[in-house]
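dumping this here so i dont lose it
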């Protein structure tokens, strides 16, 4: 009897049949779990994500995987969302009015309606690893655990890739029009020099309240025999002070720099140490970052970190140095709670009807970087390339 509508060990020829008729489809989508090991690696292996992890999960969680496994995000920098494909809301693109009322005076208040709405959609970062079954068969009881080696290699690649995606590095994986680099939600677009992109559904070019701060630093200066780049520091502080004037700003920043900017700032810190500044010669640091073992410096009381994946913001000159001023209360990496650091519970063996016999494992994360207020953020850019 012809198997017209009954799928017994066969797949459809095209379209949705290929998916819906697979006998292991439900197994693939349900036999997965949130991996604390992968999540721990993501928040401990790269400098930027270590800083995010400390802000989100706390000091104890960053020092011990057992504590990390029990910790829930505090709401700082990591936001767990669920149940919707994207998150949306209303913002106010107009300011209210004010009036001074004297004796016997009167006034009529003005209602300010909700303005342009924001809309952030999820990205999906997927890593898949295959092992031909002949490799497993031929290895027998060999000395090398092929499955373990492949799984660890996939995890290592995943940890690097998610850091690249968030920071907008050119090495980030990209899947065309739906890839991370084409939706303007990575750091280089969120905090940019050119204010023309549409971020979260809001146009920067037509809404000034959705502009971040930006300041070009064409010279770093120098002083004394120790080469103290004071011009750079003063310009960085000026850029921060400009954004601190906004009502929604607070003095709660994470500074993220390119390697050259980090080395420039190191010159200043080194010279200050030798000359007895910064508390009698002590290098400026932030206590909780010290306690968590995160390599950093302090700028105006806030932590500064360097990550090798940091690149210049959109609109800056290539081969120059930059510093991002990330306002922690209004920046978040949103993770979809039911699909964040989702790892195949085990290697799925080949199915009988597969022509290519392979074992398969996967890691999946749905995420998006987002800001709830754009104005507090800023970037210093176009610093001369560091010759060190």
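and the seq i came up w/
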């Amino acid at each position: 009897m012809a198997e017209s509508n009954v799928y017994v060990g066969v797949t459809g020829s095209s379209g949705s049949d290929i998916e819906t008729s697979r006998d292991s489809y439900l197994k693939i989508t349900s036999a997965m779990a949130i991996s604390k090991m992968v999540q721990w690696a993501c928040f401990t292996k790269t400098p930027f994500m270590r800083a995010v992890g400390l802000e989100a999960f706390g000091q104890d969680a960053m020092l011990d995987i057992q504590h990390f496994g029990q910790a829930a995000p505090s709401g700082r920098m990591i936001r767990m969302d669920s149940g919707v494909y994207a998150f949306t809301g209303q913002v106010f693109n107009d300011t209210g009015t004010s009036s001074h009322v004297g004796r016997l005076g009167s006034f009529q208040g003005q209602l300010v309606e909700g303005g342009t709405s924001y809309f952030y959609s999820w990205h999906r970062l997927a890593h898949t690893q295959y092992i031909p079954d002949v490799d497993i068969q031929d290895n027998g009881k060999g000395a090398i655990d092929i499955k373990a080696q492949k799984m660890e290699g996939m995890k290592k690649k995943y940890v690097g890739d998610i850091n690249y995606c968030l920071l907008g590095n050119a090495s980030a994986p990209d899947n065309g029009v739906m890839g991370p680099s084409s939706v303007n939600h990575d750091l280089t677009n969120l905090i940019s020099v050119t204010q023309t992109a549409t971020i979260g559904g809001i146009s920067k070019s037509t809404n000034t309240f959705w502009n971040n701060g930006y300041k070009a630093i064409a010279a770093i200066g120098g002083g004394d025999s120790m080469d103290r780049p004071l011009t750079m520091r003063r310009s960085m502080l000026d850029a921060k002070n400009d954004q601190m004037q906004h009502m929604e700003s607070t003095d709660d920043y994470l500074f993220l720099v390119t390697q050259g900017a980090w080395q420039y700032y190191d010159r200043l810190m080194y010279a200050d140490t030798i000359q007895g500044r910064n508390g009698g010669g002590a290098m400026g640091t932030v206590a909780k970052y010290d306690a968590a073992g995160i390599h950093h410096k302090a700028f105006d009381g806030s932590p500064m970190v360097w990550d090798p994946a940091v690149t210049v913001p959109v609109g800056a000159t290539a081969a120059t140095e930059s510093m991002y001023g990330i306002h922690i209360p209004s920046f978040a990496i949103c993770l979809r709670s039911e699909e964040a650091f989702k790892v195949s519970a085990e290697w799925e063996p080949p199915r009988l009807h597969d022509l290519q016999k392979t074992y398969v494992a996967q890691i999946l994360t749905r995420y998006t970087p987002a800001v709830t207020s754009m104005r507090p953020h800023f970037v210093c850019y176009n610093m001369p390339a560091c010759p060190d």
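The chain has a mean pLDDT of 83.
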